[in-house]
Request: fold
Amino acid sequence: MKTRTLLERIYEWYLKSADLHIPRHIAVIQDGNRRYAREQGIALEKGHHAGAETTERLLEWASELGLKYITLFCFSTENFSRKEEEMRYLFSLFKEKLAAVVRDPRVHRNGIRVQMLGDRSLLPEDLLAHVEVAEEATKGYSNYFVNLALGYGGRNEIVHAAREILQGVRNGRIGCEEIDAALVGRHLKEGALLPPVDLVIRTGNEKRTSNFLPWLANGNESAVYFCAPNWPQFRKIDLLRAIRLYDQRMKLLKEM
Reply:
């Protein structure tokens, strides 16, 4: 274990000193909390709690590396099919972490803005209230952005945008000839809040992007890094490897 830790530190030092291209916007699919709990023989809630601790570490690493935008896939529209007991625990955990954000001096010292993506009508009122308090407390900041995808589904976002555009056409605010990619992007909540995604990271050895930011990620042909560790086991070296993949892609594009 000590040898492995030493090798990881050496590799981490190498990657950090390699003058890598740093992505502006990273989107993270935090997968594997439940698998981690099963593999460790612990309660499901402890798996989610361990995942939340990894998320806190990720935000510290992001600040060190100068990553301006981090978007976290916290809870999808499909996740509402989970058992009521698990959802109650997750919503309680989200509220706890959102309340901590408001109190955390690092958030205010570093100028971190917290924003939500997703369908607010799907969230319980008490959770939405915590989201709104965190957004209000950080709305004046612009050094870093932490975007929480809650009640989020990429196709759902596109459907909502299509409805808004159709309504605009019906009432004469939008002409059919005006409908283009830029207009659609402006009507997507994610498109209005965020720049295109440069790098998608998914943990848990799953090799799919699960309807996450399809307009900003797939449409931008983002680099995608799939890795084996479950989310609670994700390490800084895994983040650096993902950034190295992005760096390799950027260098290849420059050569073309």
